[in-house]
């Protein structure tokens, strides 16, 4: 079976959950090969082998972290030329999409973003217009380059050899054109990443103040969830910008999305409306968020959220 | 400093959006259209960079570039009435149904005929939601891509400039720097777009607008349009709109009610 390349999203060699999801999906399409790029890459091999990576291509060239998408796309383009894979799968986050875009141009291939499923004949399923239309698309040119949303496939283990192969990449001047001169990491307090989490608890203007996010975090921690926020909350400085969910924040599609004190503006919906189950807590019965909630509770989040946390903790014993 | 702003006309996100049954492309005819919201921030940022450059004695201009059907001219007028100096409208029946890769090819062809130090785009079009245009154009032009900016600073020494942005990452932010000419995309945190003034609206009517066909722009007809698109929609299905579920009022046991729901769904 032909190789299917999977670009691994990782932090210093620790793969994100989406990497295991993509490898699980790739097993349906061919023989999965993981591609791990950047600092710490070599450390990821064993974990990726556990999820079916027959080969793990590794490069820790400095350029891979020092510049935006260009260098990563160059490594992938070289692998596409050398290995003639059946397809390349990438995570559908900001970086994954940009790498995919550049790779598609470099290899003269068609590109599909935001897939939630790919069938063995490489037809991708994409929700568009906020999930109201589902499209089946195919790539008609080159090597299909497909970005896949997190939480689209349930990751399952399937041990494979995970043979590590170092790739020696060459980079062009264009790859080195946009230099990262400062990389600032803001503390997340050990919670799961928004893109990975199967549960997200978000707070909005209704939370009232930075301190108000305390009860949101407690609920999230009881559920093992990530914390999100509306733009109103990030703009007010109550919660970090990186946690913004929406059109210009992160797009999430977890199993469960809980919105507390969020009205449900169209730009917020754009980032969460393909969540499997949506629960909303809002004191205004007319809030538009109730139009898409599977379960809506009209009430004051300051009493409902702590009670919810307590009830869940009780169930968990 | 010469700035080109990429502005797209899109269906209003509040309107119902459909794919047409015949060719499975976005049905642009039957809906209300507006300027892609984030592109207003891109226009605003260009105007601010121009104002900063002229305030310090430099010269600057802002050119709007749009690829889209004839009616996209309404969106171009809006950008001109905000204060842009001139516009280029690439419009040709042969472009209909082009996918993102083909659009980037066509826009890159037009860009190659313009003189610019910066190209500014929005971070995402609300119809495609792909967020890849600057990456595609960077690959085609060989120029640096600085995407997702929440802050932009640019300085010119004669014709050589430096642009620096701050961009949100998943766990903090990066500062990214490049030499001009460069391609920047912006997010909504960057500024507050101005409303066109009455004077601006009147002035816009007299501003230069160049309309280009694909032949004018040197675009190869075989590389654009639905028939040759590198990605093709095979089929589509309309899902019933997400219907509202149960809505209950808190009677002092709201948390309990939610847990009951979650338990029934096997979510806790
Ligand atoms: C170009 C552009 C991009 C944007 N991108 C994003 C984006 O990425 N993400 C995003 O979220 N927004 C985005 N926005 C902003 C968006 O339009 C809304 O302004 C924002 O989502 C509103 O946030 P909110 O729901 O928290 O606040 P509000 O709309 O003010 O709603 C607050 C809600 O809290 C409820 N409430 C108040 N107190 C309580 C209480 N004690 N208990 C329970 N409920 C309570 C109220 O009834 C109300 O419904 C964008 C806007 C623009 C123009
Ligand atoms: N047809 C077009 N004409 C002009 N600009 C465009 C066009 N398509 C996309 N853009 C620009 O690219 C940005 C991102 O679009 P996208 O990558 O499609 O989400 C938009 O905000 C616009 O600035």
From TrEMBL, chain A:
It comes from uncultured Frankineae bacterium. FAD binds at residues 205, 230-231, 244-248, 261-268, 282. It comes from the Bacteria. The electron transfer flavoprotein serves as a specific electron acceptor for other dehydrogenases. It transfers the electrons to the main respiratory chain via ETF-ubiquinone oxidoreductase (ETF dehydrogenase). One of its GO terms (biological process) is fatty acid beta-oxidation using acyl-CoA dehydrogenase. Belongs to the ETF alpha-subunit/FixB family. Binds 1 FAD per dimer. This is Electron transfer flavoprotein, alpha subunit. One of its GO terms (molecular function) is electron transfer activity. Residues 4-183 form the Electron transfer flavoprotein alpha/beta-subunit N-terminal domain.
From TrEMBL, chain B:
It comes from uncultured Frankineae bacterium. Heterodimer of an alpha and a beta subunit. Its cofactor is FAD. The keyword DNA-binding does not apply. GO terms for molecular function: electron transfer activity. It holds the Pfam family ETF. Signal peptide: none annotated. InterPro entries: ETF_a/b_N, ETF_b, ETF_beta_N, Rossmann-like_a/b/a_fold. Belongs to the ETF beta-subunit/FixA family. Keywords: Electron transport, Transport. The electron transfer flavoprotein serves as a specific electron acceptor for other dehydrogenases. It transfers the electrons to the main respiratory chain via ETF-ubiquinone oxidoreductase (ETF dehydrogenase). This is Electron transfer flavoprotein subunit beta. GO terms for cellular component: cytosol. Residues 23-221 form the Electron transfer flavoprotein alpha/beta-subunit N-terminal domain. CDD domains: ETF_beta (cd01714).
């Amino acid at each position: 079976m032909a190789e299917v390349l999977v670009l691994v999203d990782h932090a210093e060699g620790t793969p994100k959950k989406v990497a295991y999801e993509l490898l699980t999906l790739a097993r349906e399409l061919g023989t999965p090969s993981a591609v791990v790029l950047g600092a710490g890459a070599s450390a990821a091999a064993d974990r990726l082998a556990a999820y079916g990576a027959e080969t793990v291509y590794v490069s820790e060239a400095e350029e891979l972290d020092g510049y935006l998408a260009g260098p990563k796309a160059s490594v992938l383009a070289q692998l596409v030329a050398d290995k003639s894979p059946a397809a390349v799968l990438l995570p559908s986050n900001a970086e994954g999409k940009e790498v995919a875009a550049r790779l598609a141009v470099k290899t003269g291939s068609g590109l599909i973003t935001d897939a939630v499923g790919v069938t063995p004949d490489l037809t991708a399923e994409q929700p568009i217009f906020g999930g109201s239309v589902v499209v089946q698309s195919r790539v008609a040119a080159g090597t299909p380059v497909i970005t896949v949303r997190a939480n689209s496939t349930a990751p399952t283990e399937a041990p494979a050899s995970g043979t590590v192969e170092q790739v020696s990449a060459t980079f062009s001047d264009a790859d080195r054109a946009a230099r990262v001169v400062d990389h600032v990491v803001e503390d997340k307090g050990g919670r799961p990443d928004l893109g990975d989490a199967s549960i997200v608890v978000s707070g909005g203007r209704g939370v009232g103040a930075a301190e108000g996010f305390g009860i949101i975090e407690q609920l999230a921690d009881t559920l093992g969830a990530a914390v999100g926020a509306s733009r109103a909350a990030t703009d007010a400085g109550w919660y970090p910008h990186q946690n913004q969910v929406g059109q210009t924040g992160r797009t999430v599609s977890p199993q469960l999305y809980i919105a507390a004190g969020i009205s449900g503006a169209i730009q917020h919906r754009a980032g969460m409306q393909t969540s499997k189950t949506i629960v909303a807590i809002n004191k205004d019965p007319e809030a538009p968020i109730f139009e898409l909630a599977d379960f809506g509770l009209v009430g004051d989040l300051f009493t409902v959220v702590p009670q919810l946390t307590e009830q869940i903790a009780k169930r968990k014993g | 400093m010469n700035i080109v702003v990429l502005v797209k006309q899109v269906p209003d996100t509040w309107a119902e959006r459909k794919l047409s049954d015949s060719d499975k492309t976005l049905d642009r005819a039957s809906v209300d259209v507006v300027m892609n919201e984030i592109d207003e921030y891109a226009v605003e940022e260009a105007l601010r960079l121009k104002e900063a450059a002229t305030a310090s004695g430099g010269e600057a201009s802002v050119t709007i570039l749009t690829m889209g059907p004839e009616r996209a001219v309404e969106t171009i007028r809006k950008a001109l009435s905000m204060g842009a100096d001139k516009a280029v409208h690439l419009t040709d029946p042969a472009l209909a149904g082009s996918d993102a890769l083909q659009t980037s090819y066509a826009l890159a062809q037009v860009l190659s005929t313009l003189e610019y130090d910066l190209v500014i785009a929005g971070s995402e079009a609300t119809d495609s939601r792909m967020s890849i245009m600057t990456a595609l154009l960077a690959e085609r032009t060989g120029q640096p891509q600085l995407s997702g900016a929440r802050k932009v600073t640019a300085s010119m020494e004669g014709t050589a400039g430096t642009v620096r942005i701050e961009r949100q990452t998943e766990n903090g932010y990066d500062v990214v720097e490049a030499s001009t000419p460069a391609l920047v995309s912006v997010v909504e945190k960057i500024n507050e777009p101005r409303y066109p003034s009455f004077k601006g609206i009147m002035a816009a009517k007299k501003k230069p607008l160049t309309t280009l066909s694909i032949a004018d722009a040197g675009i190869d007809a075989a590389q654009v349009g639905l028939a040759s698109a590198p990605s093709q929609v095979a089929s589509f299905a309309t899902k019933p709109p997400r219907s509202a579920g149960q809505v209950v009022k808190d009677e002092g046991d709201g948390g309990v009610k939610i847990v009951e729901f979650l338990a029934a769904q096997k979510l806790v």
